[in-house]
Write a sequence for this structure.
């Protein structure tokens, strides 16, 4: 059984999937920034040692914190039994628990949930005659997706964090009791630490011919961030995009189209930046000082 969902219905299905997770929860999304509703759904699961959580994120190989923030990592690391993987080529989005799964266009990113046009295909694990019917018809979308993402995507990704539930045996080994969780591997705490901006020995100038503010340092041009992709670029308040992102923006040339990052800091902007306003208001004073605006 499968159904097509979109908009608020898609958000509700993902939230329901989180609510119903008891023994297994798989989250595969290049970008992760949890909406408060999803956090509220997952919080009651944090201390459940019987729930195995598998998380795969991707993109931004040079600065993984733009795909998975330190804040969200700290939230997921509270689960009693969790593995976090990284795959730089990841573009697919897949969410699953022990009973159902969602193949979707939507990142697990609050901006996508609130602003983008997204869809999903919800599949269920059927039993009895309905499952037999699916086998006869050869329609096993759920099983095929499950095997692909777990055997191909997860197994071929690099594990970056592993926290494992530890049990002690009781009654001659016939039962077991959860006692604690142990971190077996943690490469993310250091990798998600945000790199410092260049601020030392700077000399600023303003090019009146190109109408661009530029800061020069001993190591070159001051670092800034593309407001669409978050990647490192040269500071240019008139063109706060990477070359690839600028070509995309230039197709429609909508100066007020909401973007994802602050040009000055690289912080997530939640749609509050744009071509006409590339710097978050909280960073404007610092940007003016650093780049002599």
């Amino acid at each position: 059984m499968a159904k097509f969902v979109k908009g608020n219905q898609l958000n509700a299905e993902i939230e329901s999937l989180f609510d119903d997770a008891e023994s297994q929860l798989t989250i595969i999304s290049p970008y992760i920034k949890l909406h408060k509703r999803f956090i509220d759904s997952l919080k009651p699961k944090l201390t459940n040692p019987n729930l195995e959580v598998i998380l795969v994120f991707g993109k931004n190989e040079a600065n993984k914190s733009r795909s998975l923030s330190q804040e969200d990592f700290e939230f997921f690391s509270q689960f009693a039994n969790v593995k976090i993987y990284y795959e730089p080529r990841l573009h697919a989005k897949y969410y699953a628990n022990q009973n159902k799964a969602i193949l979707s266009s939507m990142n697990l990113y609050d901006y996508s949930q609130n602003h983008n046009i997204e869809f999903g295909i919800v599949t269920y694990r059927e039993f009895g005659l309905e499952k037999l019917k699916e086998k006869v018809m050869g329609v096993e979308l759920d099983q095929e997706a499950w095997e692909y993402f777990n055997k191909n995507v997860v197994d071929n990704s690099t594990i970056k964090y592993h926290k494992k539930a530890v049990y002690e045996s009781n009654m001659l080994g016939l039962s077991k009791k959860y006692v604690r969780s142990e971190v077996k591997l943690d490469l993310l705490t250091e990798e998600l630490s945000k790199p410092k901006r260049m601020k030392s020995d700077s000399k600023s100038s303003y090019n009146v011919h190109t109408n661009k503010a530029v800061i020069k340092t001993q190591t070159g041009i001051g670092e800034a961030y593309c407001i669409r992709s978050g990647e490192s670029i040269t500071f240019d308040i008139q063109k706060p995009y990477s070359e690839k992102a600028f070509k995309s923006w230039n197709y429609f040339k909508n100066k007020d189209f909401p973007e994802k990052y602050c040009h000055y800091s690289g912080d997530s902007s939640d749609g509050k930046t744009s071509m006409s306003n590339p710097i978050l208001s909280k960073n404007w004073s610092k940007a003016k000082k650093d780049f002599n605006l």
